[in-house]
Amino acid sequence: MNASKFNKIAWISLVFVYLVIIAGGVVRMSGSGMGCPDWPKCFGSWVPPTIEDQLPENYREDYTKYRIAKIEKFTKFLSSIGLDETANSIKNDPRTYELEAKFNASRTWTEYGNRLVGFIAGNLMLLQLILAFLWYRKKRKILLWLALANLIIIGIEGWFGSIVVASNLTPWIITVHMLLALVIILIQLIIINKLNPKEIVLKQVHLVRWLLILGIGISLYQIFAGTQLRQGVDIMLENGASRSTLLEDLGMDFYLHRSFSWAVLVSTGALYWLMKDIKELRWGVWTMCGVVFIEVIVGIILTYADMPKWAQPTHLVLACIMFAVQAYLYLQLYWPSKYIEKA
Question: Is residue 69 domain-shared with residue 109, that is, in the same domain?
């Protein structure tokens, strides 16, 4: 019975991690990343303002000082690990210290909604750790350690979220923020896999293994490359570029990213052919194919419809789902649990 309950909490936690990614995408799409100048509160309050009259007095001066202090701490940390050039780049960028030109209630509440979803995800991870300690600290300690690891990483992710705000959305910090989310997803999938082991008879074992590894690698590359492209798009738009000319300005990086979509299609097609008869994993195979199909459609829209705002976060979320499905299929096939508990 405990396994069934823990499994539900693990899946719900994973869903909320994806909701955080979606919320983060909406924040970037709407330009709401600086909607709250402080963290974890918003304009010094747990309930954000809705009109400008509710803002604290001299908030610009106060939050500029707050930002300078936070950046100073962060750049000292970067220097301590040998990243002096990066630290100086952040400190010397005048955009780092800029606040929103004008209060925008919609952006403020969009950003705060993102934080609320993250708060729920963090508390679900805490609940998962408590249950792992109560139920599995003796028999299946691996679940306890994995739950602890994910709680720590989601805490680091929250801290990075505050740095994203304090650094005025410095591009590489946003990329690290995204990669940490993928680590959280992977650990959560390992937890779920430990709770749902399967004994599966599989032909072409080595070929499927390498195709899944290849697919996971391509997905990671595409997510990283896509994040870098998104940063380039944001910078060009800030500098007054037109969405209709973005592809020309992005150059070879975009075409390389698009070319890898063929590798995604080929590897997915091969995996479908080799795994379509595995009854236990049929849901995963079909989900993988469906996500790739939708991802291709969204990619075409991005290419030929002047990169509409809604398509950018959609493209990223689909890639993250693709990564999760591939990783879970690999875990189910090649990393089975040695301990099977009857619910």
Answer: yes
Asked if 220 and 243 sit in the same domain, the reply is yes
Question: What domain range includes position 168?
Answer: 1-196
Radius of gyration, CA atoms only, the chain: 22
Amino acid occupying residue 104: N
Identify the residue whose tokens are 């918003």: 42
Q: How far apart are CA 235 and CA 95, in angstroms?
A: 12
Whether residue 7 sits in one domain with residue 85: yes
- 3-class SS at 56? coil
Q: What are the tens digits of pLDDT across the range 54-77?
A: 777 777 777 777 777 777 777 787
How far apart CA 164 and CA 156 sit, in angstroms, is 12
Q: What are the C-alpha distances in Å from 26 to residues 22, 30, 63, 97, 155?
A: 6, 6, 24, 23, 21
pTM above 0.85, yes or no: no
Side-chain-side CA neighbours of 78 within 13 Å: the count stands at: 19
Separation of alpha carbons 161 and 189, rounded Å: 23
Token pair recorded at residue 328: 């879970």
Is residue 319 scored above 60 in pLDDT? Answer: yes
